[in-house]
Every structure is written in C-alpha cells, then in structure tokens.
Design a protein that fits this description.
- This protein is mainly beta and 263 residues long.
- It has one domain (2-262).
- The chain contains 3 helices and 14 strands.
- The chain has helices at 7-13, 36-46, 54-63, and strands at residues 23-24, 72-87, 90-106, 111-119, 125-133, 137-145, 154-156, 159-163, 170-176, 189-200, 211-220, 226-235, 240-247, 251-262.
- The chain has a 14-stranded antiparallel sheet with strand order 1-7-6-5-4-3-2-14-13-12-11-10-9-8.
- The longest helix has 11 residues, at 36-46.
Length: 263
C-alpha cells in the first residue's frame, strides 16, 4: 500500500509494493507502453465499479454513494522526491524532480478514476492508474513504466471490513488483500485518516474554488506497521482529494499543483 499514494514518481524510487492491497489478475491487454489516449481507454474499461472484486463491489453499491460533481479534472504537478543517502561524511539528502499530469474522472458511486502520467527530464515516463473513493481510499491501482517488458498486475482490495464514507472527523478503510492466484492475507491492512485544518483551496492554486480540508492519513500493513504517512487536500467543491505529501521512513514526496482545470 505504501506505493499506492506516492504516484508514479515513487515507482522510479522503488518497485516495492509492501503492504499494498491485494492484486487482481492483470488483463492481458494492459498497455505496458502507449499514448495517454490508449491508457485512458484501458482505464475506463478496467478501473470501474464493475472491475471490483464482487465482495468489494457489493460494499460500494450498498453504500449508495452520490457521484462526484464533476466529469473530468486535469491537474499538472511538480513532484519532488527527497531521500537520505549514506555517504562518506554521513547521511545526505538527495532530491529528484518530476513533472506529472493527473486526470481525475467521475466513475459513479463516489468513485474516481485517476491517471497520472509522469516524465523525468531524461525522457523516461511512467503511468499510474487508480480507482479510489473520492481520491483517498484506493480500491484498484496499477503502475506501468515505459521501459517495462510487460505490465504488472492490477493491485486491488479483495474484501472490505470497514469503509467510512464521511469526509471529516476520523475515517477508516480496512481491507484484506491477496496476490493473483493466492489466498487473501491472514490479517487486513488499513488506511486511517483524520481531518485537519480548513483553508481556501486557492492557496494550492488560484484556479481551485471553494475550501480545502487537510486529511492526514496513515497506511498500515497487515502486521500493524505504519508504512507511510500521507497528506491530502480534500476539495469541498469538487468532492475529491488531491495528494500533497507522502512520507516514508527514508524518503518524502512533495507535490505542488501548477495547473488545475475542470473540463
């Protein structure tokens, strides 16, 4: 689960999916490479309520959630990853910067499809696909690197134990997971979030209307360990959360919103 929120930039730092929600079999048609349009078609087909595990889909349908109030939002961000590296004179900070374009689409039932396409200054690229509840509780995720020989499996929750749908106060998403062809984990993982301060969303970018609510989340693996801490800005007007920061034990990702468009 640690990489589930880090966006594509983290996939260049580590391929680890420790503590991630369980994987569903990857469709053979997954585009290991291709244009954003090709990825968009794949996203619509394989990242929807119908693509969820039947038990998970039943939980979402039973919640009878209102859809988000937008069709499509496109965000451009600057993502900086800072990590500690050991050197002759002790630990030193190393920093990498990436440019990303992130598309959010209304998938109904409070679900949001998210596609992040990231590029380095060397021309390398990666794509991250996701289906989540309003941007902060992930149900399905997949990272696809431009130099991958084949696409990795779609990672997805297999059974939901707790699904808090309010967007303030204390929220918990508890789920079991399992790799393709394997049993579910013996113990569940969790995403635990607490609402923080409110502020004008225009502080993030002048084009964003309404108020933003800070969500501080912890990602907890099946062993009860915190794998990462994540900060979101939940946008009241659009009812979706944008990722601002991911903190790991040995690195931090900071995301700055450079452009925001509702289409």
């Amino acid at each position: 689960m640690a990489a589930a929120y880090a966006g594509t930039a983290a996939s260049f730092q580590s391929a680890s999916q420790a503590g991630a929600p369980g994987s569903a079999p990857a469709p053979a048609s997954a585009p290991a490479t291709g244009s954003p349009a090709e990825h968009a078609g794949y996203l619509a087909q394989h990242f929807s309520a119908d693509a969820l595990n039947p038990d998970v889909k039943a939980v979402v349908m039973h919640a009878n959630l209102a859809p988000v109030p937008f069709g499509r939002i496109v965000v451009r961000t600057r993502e900086q990853v800072t990590s500690a590296q050991a050197g002759a004179q002790g630990s030193q900070a190393a920093s990498s910067v990436y440019a990303a374009q992130i598309t959010y689409e209304n998938a109904g039932q409070g679900l949001v499809r998210r596609m992040e396409v990231m590029q380095t200054d060397k021309g390398d690229s990666a794509t991250r696909l996701e289906l989540s509840y309003r941007g902060y509780f992930p149900f399905l995720t997949q990272s696809i690197s431009s130099n991958a020989q084949e696409a990795p499996p779609i990672v997805g929750a297999r059974k939901v134990v707790r699904f808090d749908t309010q967007t303030d106060g204390h929220m918990n998403f508890t789920y079991f997971y399992g790799a393709p062809g394997q049993d579910m984990s013996a113990d569940p993982g969790q995403v635990v979030c607490d609402a923080g301060k409110r502020y004008a969303a225009s502080q993030l970018n002048a084009a964003i209307q309404g108020q933003a609510l800070e969500l501080d989340c912890q990602l907890i693996d099946e062993n009860g360990g915190v794998t990462s801490k994540v900060t979101f800005a939940y946008l009241d007007k659009y009812q979706v959360a944008l990722l601002l920061r991911v903190k790991y034990p040995d690195s931090t990702l900071d995301s700055t919103i450079e452009d925001f468009r509702v289409e």
